[in-house]
Write a structure and sequence with these properties.
A: alpha/beta; Rossmann fold; six-stranded parallel β-sheet; six-stranded mixed β-sheet; 12 helices; B: mainly alpha; two-stranded antiparallel ribbon; 4 strands
Amino acid sequence: MKLIRTLMAAATALAVTAFVAPSFAADDPGPAAYAQALKGKRVMLVPLAMGFDLAQGWAHYLKKEVDAWGGTFETRDPNWVVDAGAQAITDAISSDTRPDVLIIHAPDLNSYSKLMKKAQAAGTYVLLVDNPANFPADAFVGSDWDRLGQLEAEAAIKGCGENSSKKIGLVQGDQANSSSLYQYAGIMKVLDKHPDFKVVAKPDSNWDATTSRNVTTTMLQQNPDICSIIDFWDGDATGASAAIRDAKLDGKVFLVTTGGGEKAADCDKLQDGTYGAVVMTDLAHQSGDMNAIIKFLLQSGQPAGTSHTYIYTLEKATTKADLKPDSCWDLKALQAEAAAK
Amino acid sequence: MNTIGWPNFRSLNQEGIVFAIAVVLFVAAAIGLPGFIDPNNLVAIVRSVSVLGILALGMAVVIIGRGIDLSAVAIMAMSVAWYLQLLNTGTSDGLAFAYVLAGVLAIGLLNGFLVAYADVPAIFVTLATGSFVFGYVRSQLITQDAVPVPQGHWVELLGGLRFLDIPIEVFVFAGLAFLFFLFLRYTKWGRYIYFAGDNPVAARNIGIPVRPMLVLRYVLSAFVAVIAGLLTAASLHSINTRVVNSTLLYDIVLVAVIGGIGLSGGRGGVRNVLVGAALIGILLNAMTIIDIPLLYQNLIKAAILLGAIIVDGILNPRDEQTAQQGDI
């Protein structure tokens, strides 16, 4: 029995080496073309800063893919300073190792427009992520902030309920960042359709948690019967939540915010009731979209600056009730994974 | 001489002007804005400027001694961020705290040493050490802009502490203000700071240890910054190092200068900090109640700072005999 099996295996092996080598069966042209178009290409990510969950998540998923197809992935950390970001982009464009794809997280609508144009002229594809800008990039991947604002407003209205005071407070980001401006527009669109709901105050936090706490404290002091507050970012909503906690209004004020869907920043806080609802960006899918468009552009043969695609990420308002184990991604786990390598 | 009739406008100093503005604003807000005079709102006003006021106390002592500490906000955020990071990665509390205090002491000493013994202008030294502290801690010691307080840790419990429904920051601010008052008014070294700030060379000639005292002031300012950082983390249950890029540093200088502490040194005290903090607190609270957008709030704040500096320049002219290159 054993002998026969060994013989048969040997025969098969022989047959395989004899036939397969010159045959056309494995000649799928895809992998070779793919490898040829992508190998050695450079991708660079310039976020607002590398120190927060979204940027670290993107970098993780992008690097994994780029490494897999034999490219080089780099990041630059402007640390929230617009000038430093501009410098990083300028250096990247003029360096010998000019990136083939530049992924830019724009700080506002206009700052980097000229630089992005320069990058495209040099032959670099420009991807805008998360924050839209007044510039026809090769692709925009991120949230439809208007839609996101609408989801927040709907969550707030639902959180308030029919028998509430119907008073809503907003803690905006600032008056320059597109994510803040469009989010506000979206919220107001929904509230216009619900005229019984009123915005009682709409201060700015300047994305700072202490400022968010102070303005929320004042807001609650003036309107103790507010039923919901929408804070424009989970990065500073910790301040709004502190103000609610200090005013002993936990459970009475439904706090809605938006974030990158990181576990400690969003899901844990939904779980413990700090946030009532969070409109979360599905970061893994968003990064997947970026990876797909990068692979497409590099193979397309299309010159940089000739395609204008918008790829909006699917957004969803998550509450404690529909929290699932996979609702969030875990930055600590990703960092541990990166450290283990 | 001037007991009846018009007040003596000549004797009206900046502190008096700012105090009057604060009172006028307070009365106007109390009448015009519903809910402003509510005790809870008044507590909220004091609380909103507590951390700012604590930092301004440290800054005041440095400025009175004819210096400035631009590293205060970096030390505040980065020391506490590092402390929390150490806790989150399993370092024992005592050890983590000891590391952080040692680091803060080192930076305070470095600031003081470079200003006192290397004769580098304070504005450059502290600007550089501030950037260094931020850059080093951010890149080498912590992984994220925002570092959370571990659940159930004493810093978190500190944030929930209330006496008579008043948050702990208010008491810490009041306590520190009193201690600084005692230090500046009744201790020998406290009085020496005024001499050294008014005329460093003369102070040195009469035997005051000008240089060691200078070092002490920067160390003091650094430790005050740590207290402010701990209180911030206590309230927010995390510390976000982005605050280093914010306007907080200028707000601290604003509070000190607007209250009437002359940037040329030798003048002012704790009372000036309290007056400056009161004006800023009332102003910000009223502007938030009226719902003025942040852009305009910053504009108004900046205009007031500019006005205060101009008034400061007129009331406290530079002493040509003792002014040095690099003084501010």
